[in-house]
Amino acid sequence: xxxxxxxxxxxxxxxxxxxxxxxxxxxxxxxxxxxxxxxxxxxxxxxxxxxxxxxxxxxxxxxxxxxxxxxxxxxxxxxxxxxxxxxxxxxxxxxxxxxxxxxxxxxxxxxxxxxxxxxxxxxxxxxxxxxxxxxxxxxxxxxxxxxxxxxxxxxxxxxxxxxxxxxxxxxxxxxxxxxxxxxxxxxxxxxxxxxxxxxxxxxxxxxxxxxxxxxxxxxxxxxxxxxxxxxxxxxxxxxxxxxxxxxxxxxxxxxxxxxxxxxxxxxxxxxxxxxxxxxxxxxxxxxxxxxxxxxxxxxxxxxxxxxxxxxxxxxxx
Length: 317
Fold this sequence. Notes:
Blueprint: H1 3-9, E1 14-19, H2 28-38, E2 45-48, E3 54-59, E4 65-70, H3 76-87, E5 90-96, H4 102-115, E6 119-123, H5 144-155, E7 173-178, H6 189-202, E8 206-211, H7 215-227, E9 234-238, H8 246-254, H9 260-268, H10 272-293, E10 297-301, H11 307-316
Parallel strand pairs: 1-2, 1-10, 2-5, 5-6, 6-7, 7-8, 8-9, 9-10
Antiparallel strand pairs: 3-4
Helix pairs in contact: 4-5, 5-6, 10-11
């Protein structure tokens, strides 16, 4: 079922999860051990992230370095199919620009279509850590809006090879990401919203937000979206704070802010165990307030761990 159909048919706020593929060398059962207890609460869909390759530099006998591309978390397409098969739940694989040519993207989309996976989250993706700025693949897409257009074209039966005959159309429901506090590369919030509207106008069916810890940020963001005639469902993304170190790490990696009252409470905590419990309590209150606001779905970022998400979901659903 399409994500938009789940939302249309729901009479309450839905639950969804986002998981990371296991690191190369780990078993998919490690992932299932995170999902198994959460499945009791019947999430409507599970997102599977995609991680692009990184450059690894290997010392050579002559003293020089040999560059080798490695992907540490492969298997997004296979994991999406495996989760659907094990739990009979809809999955949403992430499709990114980084690391793909247009031809490779088309082939990946065809594989997903054959597997019966008809929901996607379309993203530009992060730059390589060694590059600092995003560099598209040769014959690839530079922006998520371009990747979105390719998916929309497949839904219309428009393939890269315009000589194909007896064309089969795909039927993907397409999600895109949004940043309630602004994408760090955008010059201002207005420009960021204009880019988002461009993606919706090109065919995005729904929006999932970056995590946030202040619900007013989401409320204001939804209001501004509606004022700009962005009327697709906007799903809030949530993650419980788990350690004191995350006070620095999450803003550093995800470019978001913490509300002052949360920071004050975290700094009072003597141990990470106390921060962990505070994070659960904060996420529960966030969740309940978002439900009362009428959020269509609560999307929890597990980041490969599910115990604190489970404790939140137990109190909310």
